[in-house]
Amino acid sequence: MSGEGTPENQGQPAVPNLQVVGQYIKDLSFENPGATSGISARPQIELGVDLNAARMSEKDMFEVELKVRVDAKNDGKPLFLLELAYAGAFRLTNVPDTGTQQLILLIQAPHMLFPFVRRIVADVVRDGGMPPLMIEPIDFMALYQARVAQAQVANQQPQGNA
Predict the structure, then answer these.
(1) What are the structural domains, with CATH classification, of the chain?
(2) pLDDT tens, residue by residue, 8-40
(3) Which single residue of 11, 28, 95, 122 has CA 20 to 30 Å from 2?
């Protein structure tokens, strides 16, 4: 049958594919009240990370947004506050419309965006007069699992009569 012009992978499922179509800064804010204060000790850094994925107008296109918030203090005084929303447009093909899509969009896609987010954070903090801040790699699988667990707990909570 292979000589009849049929594709070689006939009968086999199509290979799933995640393609980066574009990536961009959606929002960037940097407040630098501690620029002139000098750093006397290692600053206290609070890092917050959030993810969102949404289908775009095309059926197989998704926007994945990685939000990072860095709040730095020195001896309890504000040093700087950085908020970055970095997004990517992804084409997801040959993936059934199930939880598999969610896994790919909330684990693999942000993993692909993270090096760019890390560089932007380091550059902006350095350009603000501070030593560059190199964010440690983020375990997006653990972040996803925590989000799923939190949603399960929220669904099990009895609704109050207020």
Answers:
(1) 15-152 (3.10.420.10)
(2) 556 666 788 999 999 999 999 999 998 777 666
(3) 95
